[in-house]
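Exercise (ungraded).
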Amino acid sequence: MASRQREISVSEFFTKNRHLLGFDNPAKALLTTVKEAVDNSLDACEEAGILPDIKVEITEIQPATSPNQPSKFRVAVEDNGPGIVKPQIPKIFAKLLYGSKFHRLKQSRGQQGIGISAAGLYGQLTTGKPVAIVSKTGKGRPAFKIELRIDTKRNQPDVVKDETTEWDKDHGTRVEIDLVAVYRGGRTGVQEYLEQTAVANPHLALTFVPPKGGERLEFPRVSNELPREAQEIKPHPHGVELGMLQMMMQDSGAKTVKQVLVDDFSRVSPAVAQQACEMAKVSPRLPAEKLHGEALEHLHKALSQVKVMAPPATAVVPIGETLLIEGLKRRFPRADFYASTTRPPKVYRGNPFVVEAALAYGGDLPLDEPAEIMRFANRVPLQYQPKACAISESVYQTKWRNYELSQPKGGLPVAPLAIVVHLASVWVPFTSEAKEAVAHYDELLDEMKLSLQECGRKLATQLRAQKHAQREHLRRSLFEKYIPEVARALANILSMPVEKTEKPFYKALPIFVNLGLDEDAKDAPKEVPTGGGAPSVPPPASAKGKDKQLKLVE
Amino acid sequence: MAAKKAKKSDRDAVTLAKIERLAREVLAQATRGANPAVEIRQRSLSNVSFNTKKKIIELGDKTQSREFFNTAMARKFMQTMIVAQGCKKLIDEGKTVSIRQMFYMSKHTLDRSNENTFEDQSESDPIIEDLEVGIDALREELHLFANKRGLVVGKLVVNDAGDTIDLARMGRGGWGIPSICESDQLEFVKNSADFVLLVEKQAVWLRLNEDRFWEKNNCILMTSEGQAARGARRLLQRLATELKLPVYVLVDNDPWGLYIYSVLKQGSINLAYESMRMAVPNVRFLGMSASDYKKYKMPHAAEIKLTKEDLARAEQMKAYPWFKDARWQREIQGTIDNGFKMELDSLLTKSITFMAEEYIPKKLRDRDYLQ
């Protein structure tokens, strides 16, 4: 047996596990490549405090032999980020499992550090072409153009070309990957991903140049506010996994178990650490390295049960109610109403999280189709496996009929409606390593439903006001239709000019018709950016004057 | 459009004042920001009562306020004003038109719309009635008349708008009863009849006229041609009150025939406000009675099975206060118990002249009628 044991090459690993990494098929491979590059650019810009300006360009470099067959594409993603210092470039783009994000508990887009180099590897495996990077770290500094290949045997980058080049940008990075792919539209397409990214990142200025002469897409920046940087936090005792706990104990140097608990965990005081150790029947003074087996498991169990404060909410950065609407407007600028809700931070298994939701309603959204759901985890659109996702489930479980919308039993609301649900958390529980759907945790599902209900209530208030206004408009036009007739008849009977009989009716009209909204405001889209009640329409003034009428019959 | 002003009678002046008062009130209400409204007495079963003393149906005081700023009423309000305007014009010009002509006078397309002020006459007729009760004016005071319906022949000479007409010399067709039979236009010149017989159906009337029934029985023979129009009712009341003639009515033996009789006798729900001028409380119900089936040994061929609607109508009528008398309850119940109805025409199953020569004379002789 031992003779058959050998080191597995990266390419072998990749080929066998490409479904985990998002390269199951040529269409998805294209999406994953764009996604990894854009996520990297966004994270880099935000960490450097730069408002991101990203351009995505896809060109078909070798047309397919027949439609829908894979063909060769070039994906180019260019940002205005801080740039990458030259020695780092090969490791980032051509070494798998190299990254800064994996080892920490901090809300960020990517979490595995496998993405962009995997895309490069996929490109290399399908086209034989190296990855090309241009990067510049500041004004006056040189721009480097580097072409990289991955040595799949050693998991090491091979620099194929390394030259200095002219770049009119002050700083930024451009990555170009050639790959065999299929360019598709629709729910799982690249354009859908970019449009949704624009929704969740109002501070992003995005340009997309699609292949095959498709229409260029521009999303100018709608917010000059960078998202607050998420605080890195230590693991919380309620959420730590056994493997992680073991690793923390092993890597502790010369600390005791109690010291590790106090120093390396969030919200664990010496008293709490003492209590956990007692519950687990583990000596608090035991050197941490020596904690193994059953004792470790006991401690893990005790940690999940010990009473402890919730982790600090500063670790989670939501988009926010106002900006969520700004973002949504980028995709649906002509909706009639927008509503959004950001829930207060909550905790699931020791991980702080925030759920937010937003709705766009009416306008040019399709009238009689099921609502469109946009799912986000840490601002990243989730496009696959909607049926398996807790976010979809929360939409299905919400009783939209309570909010003036029609909803077939157990289905999506059928209305001109787009729904956004965003889960922000230091650790998003996905159903699988492909990170395509959020797992069904009750704590998450409850918050999602609460956020949708809040949005629903805001929407319903608006819809009722709209219905009322429509009714009043109808009433007004009805009266306006008959006033000239009545006035003419009265004028003829009383031998008066029509103007004199008409005027009192037009003057009385507003008393009996309540449009509820200012005339000039009535055509502008209404929105409810922040929590609390939506501006409601005042109830119609009592318009009955019966008591004043003279009886014309004795 | 300077209308020629015709010379107005005092009655016209009063009616004009009523129309103008309506218009002024409406305008005043709008001016002070109130909802312009016309109070109209409700013409429904819930707002009529049977005056047991006078034995007529009277309209109650319940009114409905027809408001302009009310989506359910705005159109009718507009129509009421247009009809009022039309009537004012008729009075000004001294002309009289039919209610159908009033429909055309009032019908036009609204500004910036393809909607008409009135779409058909079934819309304008009730509005005219509304105006009558709304301003308390009679139809003829508004210079309107309904299409005439009903025929008369017999031993009576009348003068109608200056023409002397001998109703005994009307040939086979008879004289059409005008829709307005007020004394200022229709005068009774010479009467030699002993009674009036009104039959529901024109065909029966023609049959009796052909047999010169009125000559042989010395009477006035009328037909209402179905439900009696205002003219026929007014004429009948004047014959009964001014000439003190007994009035007999012959209708089909079914709830509808009985209701025709009932309207002649005590008025209708819809025109309850006119009962005083039109009802003939002592009119006599000669037939056909449910009991005639046995009494006259009618053959099975005379039977027509009662429909669901017939039965429902019969039950409805049993509940009317003016049919509470035991004899009427018996009569209605008789038809229900028979389970069939009979048309007057079915008397021909006996013989062609059976009705004129046996049935009616025997009934009159035997005083076999309800009153």
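Further reading is listed at the end of the chapter. For now, observe: Chain B has two domains: 10-145, 151-365. The first strand of chain B starts at residue 37 and ends at 41.
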